[in-house]
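User: Hi! Is it possible to get a structure for several chains at once, not just one? Here's what I have:
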Amino acid sequence: MEQFVFFGGKGGVGKTTVSCAYALKCAEAGLDTLVVSTDPAHSTADVFDQAFDDDPTAVEGRERLWAMEIDPDEEVERHMGEIRRRMNEQVSAAIVNEIDRQIELAHRTPGAYEAALFDRFIEVMRTADDYDRVVFDTSPTGGTLRLLALPDFLEGWIERLVAKRTKSVDLFEKAAVGDREARRKLDEDPLIAHLQGRKERFEFAGRTLRDESAFFLVVNPDELSIRETERAVAEMAEQDLGVEGLVVNRVTPAPDEDEQGRGATWLRDRVATERERIDEIRRAFDEPVVAEIESRVREVKGDLLAAVADELAIDADAGSVEA
Amino acid sequence: MEQFVFFGGKGGVGKTTVSCAYALKCAEAGLDTLVVSTDPAHSTADVFDQAFDDDPTAVEGRERLWAMEIDPDEEVERHMGEIRRRMNEQVSAAIVNEIDRQIELAHRTPGAYEAALFDRFIEVMRTADDYDRVVFDTSPTGGTLRLLALPDFLEGWIERLVAKRTKSVDLFEKAAVGDREARRKLDEDPLIAHLQGRKERFEFAGRTLRDESAFFLVVNPDELSIRETERAVAEMAEQDLGVEGLVVNRVTPAPDEDEQGRGATWLRDRVATERERIDEIRRAFDEPVVAEIESRVREVKGDLLAAVADELAIDADAGSVEA
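Assistant: Yes, the chains can be modeled jointly so their relative placement is included. Here is the combined structure:
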């Protein structure tokens, strides 16, 4: 049974709705479930009509369901603060200002959001022992997935650094026979310890994502969304991550059979086009379609959420596709 | 008259369709127009049913209309190649391997895409003299917008670097009276020249985006899209970039007045919900709504594109809202 379930897909396809519906389904099946939202628009708050923050909070009126919202802006600030604190411990006061400027510069680059968010994901995964199921309303893509290759890079970097420092220590000991102070310092080297820590975090992330996580992609029945989904599947495959199934969301409902008029004609044509796209999805992907969810007239919240949950053929117990 | 027009908005709202429709409108008004697409799904190719690449190519069957597609993957590769080449000219062969690893590491971070794309945007803006109008199907957001603050950071960095090197040269000249060689070297310093070049590029980008560009945001009539648009307007305002107008896309058509049945009921409720959202958009934003574009039954291409272009109340001549 996978503890972590991710619903990926491009902005606007309905990831948050599907994630909240699946989390509700898990909770109602008796699992202690946490839904983690990273949507800057904080739509989890809309779905449950309740404010959430960075700490898991029980969803009112639901049993065994908790939610938290991660704010990318706050994560970047927190990230900068931590690096600053660690640097200040390790360097002389004279260059603190210079380093502050460099840290701020680094956090102005695009991607600082994604990196900080991914760090927070890892943190949530490490400390999620209280929950049977953790549902994320997004899934690592492009740049973030490439971070999973970091351990190999860091490994080489650490090895070369350790080799250089060991050589220095050897020379020092030859000069000052019997003095083991330098070797002790090497064992405690804060930079090497930090790199080692990073490497282990990303190794943990890679392992957890590969062995204890299930990924679903949310797709809309239009060409653009299909193309983007193909791309996402390929990007994930590059990192040995498989996709469990596809959730087709925003499917237009059909009119009555005998219905006539501008509206019925439009709907009928639209339904026919979407039917072609859904057939294409079933043909083009090896991954099964685990739900076709109809567009609702209003935003999905309250009782509508339970209705959407019923349409998801994803087994709450196994985090996998229902037989 | 702004030469550059950007259509921003989250994924899936229909930026490429609106951009291509507006570019067509400009071309038909007699302007030599280039549409620049950065969509990894390359939907410009679908809209015009023609393949495009990194070089502007005439759109078949249309006058005065060119299109190009920028591939973020290729841009990252090109970016890495350039940095490598420059580094290899400046450093000893012994550390080239180490630098290669560092460059590759840097390009594995999230955001490398956005940074490389923005560089390419600047390049397009610098060399677009042949076109009266250049239309981008995306607009800088979050991380990329923060790059506009780079010139100030680089300025301080360059100043400190020049001061340090000048001091070294002064000392050198005191020791070797009359030898001006070191001072000449300082004037030609490749690192300082490179930083200076970066600074000027980003200054050019900031100036061009602020003074010669018009920004429109594409929004769908739902709460999530409205919230995301508010966020985008605020992010742009932080960098002194104003939004000219909002394009409401994917508006559901109404059924006939006397139409009855499941389809008519669904459409009527849906239209009513969207009407509330559009009223909210008109209330919540200072920026005018310059178009309400109905959802089409099929993907917008061919003749449909001209129909959509007609619905855009954006003046082709002025790149601003029609009176």
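The first strand of chain B starts at residue 4 and ends at 8. Chain B touches chain A through 62 residues (CB under 8 Å).

User: Great, thank you!
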